[in-house]
């Protein structure tokens, strides 16, 4: 079983109106991390969310959390429902966005996507002879731009901060930076449209030189999704999953304990056996054979009205929120 770390929230400070800096400390030695690593944290809603680690030592991780107004509430609960001194559970950090050695780098960040790139920039600048890099940081306005003071102190000419003021016509034009492939490695993290733009403009680069960090590779709930009913292996009452709710959320709201980590269909922690139903598998982990018997509760849903899971139903329902 994956080891869980109990971290104490030592400090929580705003970086902008929506982005908060969290310092998490532990009494036990924490795993070492490399630039680009992220930390799965259980939020007060019970949902796991992943946050890039911007600084670390053997007893402390620092992360930045954006309160997503349109999100499903996990990060919002972390920002609004935690107080210093509170304990939070985290899983071991992971890194699917490693900083590889390269002669030069182009970092492209949008909004909260600055966090893994900032840890990379800090790591490069800590070297005796830092390689050249350019960081392009796109945000809506100066007020929504975290880490402005630190960015202002970076070597002259290495940072471009661009504000689009919410107007897509004012988006940064990456083409001049991407037109001619060379020895640089590109690292990009930010909202979907920004990453799509960079993907489109970097298709002619060597694949191994272009790196993306996407914490939500699978959209858990989509606009056209419909409600469905879950039945269980025993005679527990059927459970309704709303159109805007994941199976995992519905199970937890009913009092079921279901493990999870990525909550985006990539790790397999939330896999559950099922007995019947037409499953819309949306994960990126299960094999075709496994999909005949299992589903991932964080992203998969029923194509029809009903799914029957091969697990006992939750007996003790939590009170309605
Ligand atoms: S929690 Fe990772 S696949 Fe569901």
Compact overview of the structure:
By secondary structure, the chain is α/β, with parallel strands linked by helices. It is built from seven helices and 18 strands.
Low-pLDDT runs = none
Please identify, by name, the CATH architecture of the largest domain.
3-Layer(aba) Sandwich
Considering DSSP H and I runs of 4 or more, what fraction of the residues is helical? 10-25%
Give, in order, the helices and strands. Answer: EEEEEHEEHEHEHEHEEEHEEHEEE
Overall SS class: alpha/beta
Explain how this protein is built.
- The structure is a single chain.
- By secondary structure, this protein is an alpha/beta fold.
- It folds into 3 domains: 5-90, Elongation Factor Tu (Ef-tu), domain 3; 105-213, Rossmann fold, CATH 3.40.50; 228-309, Ubiquitin-like (UB roll) (Roll), CATH 3.10.20.30.
- The protein contains 7 helices and 18 strands.
- It has helices spanning 74-80, 114-125, 148-152, 175-178, 192-201, 247-253, 288-291; strands spanning 5-14, 19-25, 38-42, 48-57, 60-66, 87-90, 105-110, 133-139, 159-163, 185-189, 210-213, 228-231, 239-241, 271-276, 279-280, 294-296, 301-302, 306-309.
- Helix 2 (114-125) links the parallel strand 7 (105-110) and strand 8.
- The two termini are 31 Å apart.
- The model has no long low-confidence stretch (mean pLDDT 91).
- The structure holds FE2/S2 (inorganic) cluster.
């Amino acid at each position: 079983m994956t080891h869980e770390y109990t971290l104490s929230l030592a400090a929580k400070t705003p970086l902008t109106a929506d982005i908060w800096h969290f310092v998490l400390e532990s009494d036990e030695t924490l795993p070492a991390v490399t630039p680009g690593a992220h930390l799965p944290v259980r939020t007060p809603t019970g949902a796991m969310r992943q946050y890039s680690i911007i600084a670390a030592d053997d007893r402390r991780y620092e992360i930045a959390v954006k309160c997503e107004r349109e999100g499903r509430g996990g990060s919002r609960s972390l920002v609004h429902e935690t107080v210093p001194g509170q304990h939070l559970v985290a899983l071991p950090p992971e890194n699917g966005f490693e900083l590889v050695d390269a002669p030069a780098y182009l970092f492209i960040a949008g909004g909260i996507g600055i966090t893994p790139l900032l840890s990379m920039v800090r790591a490069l600048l800590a070297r005796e002879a830092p390689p050249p890099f350019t960081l392009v940081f796109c945000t809506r306005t100066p007020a929504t731009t975290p880490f402005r003071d630190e960015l202002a102190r970076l070597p002259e000419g290495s940072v471009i901060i661009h504000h689009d003021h919410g107007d897509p016509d004012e988006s940064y034009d990456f083409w001049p930076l991407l037109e001619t492939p060379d020895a640089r490695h590109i690292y990009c993290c930010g909202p979907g449209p920004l990453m799509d733009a960079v993907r489109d403009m970097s298709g002619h680069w060597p694949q191994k030189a272009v790196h993306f960090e996407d914490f939500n590779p699978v959209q858990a709930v989509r606009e056209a999704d419909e409600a469905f009913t879950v039945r269980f292996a025993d005679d527990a009452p059927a459970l309704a999953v709303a159109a805007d709710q994941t199976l995992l959320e519905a199970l937890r709201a009913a009092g079921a304990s279901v493990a999870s980590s990525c909550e985006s269909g990539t790790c397999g922690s939330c896999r559950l056996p099922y007995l019947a139903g037409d499953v819309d598998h949306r994960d990126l982990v299960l094999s075709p054979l496994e999909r005949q018997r299992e589903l991932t509760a964080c992203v998969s849903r029923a194509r029809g009205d009903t799914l029957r899971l091969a697990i006992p139903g939750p007996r003790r329902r939590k009170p309605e929120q």
